[in-house]
Amino acid sequence: xxxxxxxxxxxxxxxLPPEQARFHVLPVPYEKTVSYGxxxxxxxxxxxxxxxxxxxxxxASDPGAEGIYTWPAVDCSGAPQRVIDDIAAAVRRILALGxxxxxxxxxxxxxxxxxxxxxxxxxxxxxxxxxxxxxxxxEAYRGDRYSHxxxxxxxxxxxxxxxxxxxxxxxxxxxxxxxxxxxxxxDAIQIVPGGVSRITLPQGFPENVFFTLDVDGMDPSVLPxxxxxxxxxxxxxxxxxxxxxxxxxxxxxxxxxxxxxxxAGLHAFDFTAALLAYKMMGIVQRCG
Length: 288
Ligand SMILES: [Mn+2]
What we know:
This protein has 8 helices and 8 strands. It is of the alpha/beta class. The chain has one domain: Arginase, Chain A (3-Layer(aba) Sandwich), CATH 3.40.800.10. It has an 8-stranded parallel sheet with strand order 2-1-3-8-7-4-5-6, with helices on both faces. α4 links the parallel β4 and β5 (162-165). α1 packs across α8 and α2 crosses α3. The longest helix has 20 residues, at 267-286. The model has no long low-confidence stretch (mean pLDDT 96). The site of manganese (II) ion (MN) has 7 residues, from loops.
């Protein structure tokens, strides 16, 4: 096997200095608290390797024309808090350049580091929109406050507004946490059977949105390569449609794709995750 590509879409997009690229891909191969299937540490590398097979024209536009810069992967070998601080610092560097972070996980815990980066950079007036099978709103999971099952609890406790899409596995504690923190949710049962691919954000929702996509929000028939798959999830076009409907209502200031865990020998899913990342860049490009 040849060495994995170090740059997203290196076959089609020229290498640019970071100042000249709008999309800044940040690989974060973090895997510490996964609770079921393993392998998300291999996610970013597999997505970047598969991105070499993408067409630059995404069917509607050419996100590659905006420039794509890929950072070296964040070192995830240290203690969780240390790694979270390093993720936040990496995001701050991207924001200091005025660029748009595209973070590839790694387990969903990473998103707390990312959100922390925005907060530390002084970004105000932003909310988070999350696609996920799970609510991730537990105070702690197995005693760990930095579990991937608690990541959105850290986000709302930091005072960041949250909208959840496609949830279909959560406990009563999480249902109560939604109420306590004013989290709005469109659960899978409300949007999947009817194929809803457009939602309206609440009127007071912040003007800027960081979008976090846990790939288990999608149906396992589309993307089963994740640690905790749950049936009854979003379809391919539905996922992209929901992202686009948010991008049309608010300014996307960054997004992430989390919990992708490649399945050896089934490269179709590596490509699916890479295409998802690129299609989302295209939607950002076309929506402003
Ligand atoms: Mn999650």
